[in-house]
């Protein structure tokens, strides 16, 4: 596994990958898949990497805590950075190439003045609560697509609205990339895995289960009221939204100082 941090190193390593992928596949051209992350990898990321490993000839992992997608009062500075453990997991998953740029490498001229406009899909849910979030996400995803030149890209369904927005960008910009969603990985008690779970105290960890319970109640009854009734049982948790959208029940809530999101299909209970 090669680990690179600069654009020149990435260009050279990416070119080598194409050669290798070309010679390993039955077809003349092998597929390169990318998994984009902000590090602090957990079993949810592992599922993305293993799916990519099973699907494509060469797997690229990007690790970059993207400042553009954090609001001024958000957790950019304290976002967990666990590079050594991330690289160990990447190695165990058979990743071929890791691109872990600094902010200066990613944004050499300072923060970009031209950003992807996410359109009206960003006016609701995460976009409504976190102004500028999807401009930041789509801008960095677009740049990482240009830099890593994948055939396929893997994103978790846990960030369901993000997945939809990335699909819309790929469609509207005619990017030649197959976006593949991977189901959310959960703890045995239902808590969706998230890098931010590590902020939770043991008491908050227990309270956080209400997100899953609220979604399950919505899915079972088809009514948002049933989900809100679950939330009402844990008044310490402050609901941001619980709604139907994108063909899913979607929710975000504050558990202490930690904002968590989750979603479920209508048929899941
Ligand atoms: O889902 C994430 O970890 C981030 O939003 C992403 C897609 C890596 C862009 O920074």
Automatic annotation (TrEMBL):
Q: Where this protein primarily resides, as one coarse class?
A: cytoplasm
Q: Which residues form the active site?
A: 45
Instruction: Work out whether the entry's keyword set contains DNA-binding.
Output: no
Instruction: Please indicate which superkingdom the organism of origin belongs to.
Output: Bacteria
Q: Which reaction does it catalyse?
A: (R)-pantoate + beta-alanine + ATP = (R)-pantothenate + AMP + diphosphate + H(+)
Binding annotation for ATP: 38-45, 156-159, 185, 193-196
Q: Which GO terms describe its molecular function?
A: ligase activity
Task: Read off the Gene3D superfamilies from this record.
Answer: HUPs, Pantoate-beta-alanine ligase, C-terminal domain
Among the Pfam families in the record, one is Pantoate_ligase
Which pathway, per its entry?
A: Cofactor biosynthesis; (R)-pantothenate biosynthesis; (R)-pantothenate from (R)-pantoate and beta-alanine: step 1/1
**Which family is annotated?**
Belongs to the pantothenate synthetase family.
Q: What else is known?
A: The reaction proceeds by a bi uni uni bi ping pong mechanism.
Could you tell me what this protein is called? Pantothenate synthetase
Protein's organism:
Dactylosporangium darangshiense
Name of the coding gene: panC
């Amino acid at each position: 596994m090669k680990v690179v941090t600069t654009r020149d190193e990435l260009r050279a390593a990416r070119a080598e990958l194409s050669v290798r992928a070309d010679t390993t596949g039955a077809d003349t051209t092998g597929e390169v898949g990318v998994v984009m992350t902000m590090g602090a990898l957990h079993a949810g990321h592992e599922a993305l990497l293993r799916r990519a490993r099973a699907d494509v000839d060469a797997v690229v992992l990007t690790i970059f805590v993207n400042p553009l997608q954090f609001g001024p009062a958000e957790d950019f500075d304290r976002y967990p950075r666990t590079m050594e453990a991330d690289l160990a997991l990447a190695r165990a998953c058979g990743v071929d190439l890791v691109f872990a740029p600094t902010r200066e490498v990613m944004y050499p001229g300072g923060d970009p003045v031209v950003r992807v406009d996410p359109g009206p899909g960003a006016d609701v849910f995460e976009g409504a609560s976190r102004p500028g979030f999807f401009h930041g996400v789509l801008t960095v995803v677009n740049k990482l697509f240009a830099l890593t030149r994948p055939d396929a890209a893997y994103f978790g369904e846990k960030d369901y609205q993000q997945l939809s927005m990335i699909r819309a960008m790929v469609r509207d910009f005619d990017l030649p990339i197959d976006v593949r969603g991977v189901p959310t990985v959960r703890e045995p008690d239902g808590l969706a895995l998230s890098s931010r779970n590590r902020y939770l105290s043991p008491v908050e960890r227990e309270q956080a289960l209400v997100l899953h319970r609220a979604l399950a109640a919505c899915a079972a009854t088809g009514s948002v009221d049933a989900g809100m009734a679950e939330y009402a049982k844990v008044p310490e948790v402050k609901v941001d939204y619980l709604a139907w959208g994108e063909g899913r029940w979607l929710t975000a809530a504050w558990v202490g100082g930690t904002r968590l999101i989750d979603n479920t299909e209508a048929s899941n209970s």
